[in-house]
Amino acid sequence: MLSIGQDRNKWQYPANIKFETYNGDTSLYGGGSIWRIKKGDTLLDYYPSGNLQSKSLIKLSNSFQLIDTNKVVKTIHEYERNGVCKLFFNDTSKTIAALGQYKENKNVGEWTFYNKSGNIIQKSYPMTLWRRSDYYDDNGKTIRQIDRIETIEGVEIVREVEFVDGQEKLIYNKTLFAKIFLRYTVAYIVLLFFFFFSRIFINSRIYNIENETDMSPILFHFGPVVSGNFTHSMLCTFTFWFSNYKPENRRIVFVSNMFSIIALGLFFGAIIGLVISGETS
User: Fold this and answer.
1) Which residue range is the domain that position 191 belongs to?
2) pLDDT at 204
3) What predicted TM-score, i.e. pTM, was given to this entire model?
4) Domain count along the chain
5) In a domain? residue 270
6) pLDDT tens digit string along 225-247?
7) Tell me: the pLDDT tens digits for 57-116?
């Protein structure tokens, strides 16, 4: 069920939301009609028309207490979708429109979509990096295939093909690097920052040994007041390779050089990947 304020006349997957209920089976009202009922471990969602929209298994995820405006202590239970979920068309026939599964409020595994005649019109299933959807005509033949990846900004199509007379025709396709980058953007950025900033502190130790100093790589600059380690901080930040160093720095120089190679590789790899990640058709 879509949350209040969204269009409940349209369905996709029921929104991945937690909902609250008081003890026992509970009906929640919106816009003058019942739109959600909890019965045991089952959640029933309704269209504004009163027709059943979805039926999902749920599980308790959290409980807490609050005091309402009348200073009455109430126990609130939060649930999440977890298990089989069925979607229905907006009519009285209770004809299944989609069937799939949720795990901890996330749709997982294969989802199957039907028309009102009960014929399969779409299947959506996970692959290694993306989620693939196959679309079918009334005769059960595949007519289109779309790959999607969940990114930090939403869902993005990374590949689309259509089938004409049994032949695959490519409409849109991102490079493999772009697909990997989109899939693991957060991890990529975390690694880039880790290797880049870690080497600054490693370089600080190297320069302190080389110059027999004891300075921090962190530079403080408050208006006219600047800490006395400006040169040291700049060297630590922008030195990406050591070739001349004292013997006692050999091991740590090796680590610094390796971190620099990885950081620069990630940085330029991202730039190159984004530049060449255009579509091929």
Assistant:
1) 184-275
2) 93
3) 0.69
4) 1
5) yes
6) 556 678 888 899 999 999 989 99
7) 998 888 888 787 888 777 777 888 899 999 999 888 889 999 999 998 888 899 999 999
Bridge partners, residue 70, by sequence: none
Kindly provide the residue ranges of all beta strands, DSSP E only, lying in 89-213, ordered along the sequence: 96-103, 106-114, 120-126, 131-136, 142-151, 154-164, 167-173
Nearest residue to 15 (alpha-carbon basis) of 42, 41, 38, 45: 45
Q: Which amino acid type is present at position 181?
A: F
pLDDT tens figures, 9-31: 444 445 544 555 554 556 554 45
Query: Does 129 fall in a domain?
Result: no
Tokens representing residue 181 in the block: 């980058």
List the beta bridge partners of residue 269.
Answer: none
